[in-house]
């Protein structure tokens, strides 16, 4: 198995050594840099799976490094570290493309857990990119929709024009995001926005503000009003990926958004009406989570209006032949 590569960037050499030892024990290949400039030289020479960088560094900051990395290599994961935490800087980091944000001091085990999540995300992203390559002529056809995924496609074509909430269930890498895009294209809302939210990738402390927005002064660092993603998706579709990972607090607010078709930004005294089609996805068994009191039963029934199971490729043997033929044609 090929070792995944990490680049640690921090002007504290002692911290680099501690993290390097920990990651090597978990079978990662580790590169080290004490400045953003040194990190960029390494990135020019070597493909890196995830960069872990301090924000505050001399000459070139971690945010500047993040911008350069994401511009040149969008599928490289990025985790920012900082000793100067504020919600405003966290939101800025995530909106700049960071996959996660951790405040110093932290437990190494916590960073390892977050690292694993980011690594998993990009493993899935690589498979998703592969699935996107199966689009033919502007997405009018996807390899598999007429064979192994025919039943799924037929169900989605019927459900797409109706504003019912759709729950996409399947393993990571089965193309749930791709199918959410098709639902939007096939719906009457296809002229409106499609907003995609990976609920597992946004820390719980930020997810509420990202989804529902906030008012100026509602918390430290809230220097201006901010529209939430539900409002940004108004008139279109919002796709909530990894819905099984949201906290009980967010579950309550999502339930209200679905039931009442309205949201209340953080710090607001009144609610805002929204007109949004909701598509959700998960790789978890929500029914079992409900039985264990890990997921709200009322929310489950609200999102389980049109349940769609997406079988993995191993259950669609005909598609393996179709994919092989597709790539032979494409690259010959």
Task: Give a nutshell description of this structure.
The chain is α/β, with parallel strands linked by helices and 332 residues long. The protein has 13 helices and 16 strands.
Binned, the helix content reads 40-55%
Parts with pLDDT < 50 across at least 5 consecutive residues: 134-140
H-E string: EHEHEHEHEHEEHEHEHEEHEHEEEHHEH
The protein's oligomeric status is single chain
Radius of gyration: 21 Å
How would you write the strand order of the largest sheet? 2-1-3-4-5
**What count of helical segments does DSSP give?**
13
- Broad shape: globular
Q: How many strand segments?
A: 16
Category from helices, strands and their pairing: alpha/beta
**What is the count of distinct domains?**
2
Percentage beta strand: 15-25%
> From the 3D coordinates, which CATH architecture of the largest domain would you assign?
3-Layer(aba) Sandwich
On the 0-100 scale, what is the average pLDDT?
A: 84
Q: CATH superfamily of the largest domain, called what?
A: P-loop containing nucleotide triphosphate hydrolases
Describe the main β-sheet briefly.
5 strands, parallel
N-to-C terminal Cα separation, in Å?
A: 29 Å
CATH topology of the largest domain: Rossmann fold
CATH class of the largest domain: Alpha Beta
């Amino acid at each position: 198995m090929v070792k995944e590569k990490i680049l640690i960037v921090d002007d504290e050499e002692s911290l680099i050594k501690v993290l390097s030892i920990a990651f090597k024990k978990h079978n990662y290949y580790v590169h080290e840099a004490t400045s953003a400039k040194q990190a960029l030289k390494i990135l020019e020479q070597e493909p890196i799976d995830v960069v872990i960088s301090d924000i505050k560094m001399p000459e070139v900051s971690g945010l500047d490094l993040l911008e350069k990395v994401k511009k040149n290599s969008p599928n490289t994961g990025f985790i920012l570290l900082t000793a100067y935490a504020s919600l405003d800087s966290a939101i800025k980091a995530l909106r700049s493309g960071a996959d996660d944000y951790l405040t110093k001091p932290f437990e190494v085990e916590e960073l390892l857990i977050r690292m694993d999540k980011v690594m998993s995300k990009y493993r899935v992203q690589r498979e998703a990119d592969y699935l996107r390559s199966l689009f033919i002529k502007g997405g009018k056809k996807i390899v598999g929709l007429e064979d192994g995924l025919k039943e799924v496609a037929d169900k989605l074509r019927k459900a797409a024009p109706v504003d019912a909430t759709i729950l996409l269930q399947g393993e990571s890498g089965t193309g749930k995001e791709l199918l959410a895009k098709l639902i939007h294209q096939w719906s009457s809302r296809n002229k409106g926005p499609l907003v995609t939210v990976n609920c597992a990738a946004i820390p719980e402390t930020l997810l509420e503000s990202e989804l529902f927005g906030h008012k100026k002064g509602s918390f430290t660092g809230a220097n201006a009003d901010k529209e939430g993603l539900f409002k940004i998706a108004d008139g279109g579709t919002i796709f909530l990926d990894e819905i099984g990972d949201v906290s009980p607090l967010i579950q309550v607010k999502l339930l209200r958004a679905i039931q009442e078709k309205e949201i209340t930004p953080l710090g607001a005294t009144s609610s805002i009406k929204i007109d949004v089609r909701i598509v959700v996805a998960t790789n978890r068994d929500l029914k079992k989570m409900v039985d264990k009191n890990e997921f709200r039963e009322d929310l489950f029934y609200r999102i389980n209006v049109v349940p769609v199971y997406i079988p993995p490729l191993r259950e669609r043997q005909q598609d393996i032949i179709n994919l092989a033929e597709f790539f032979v044609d494409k690259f010959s």
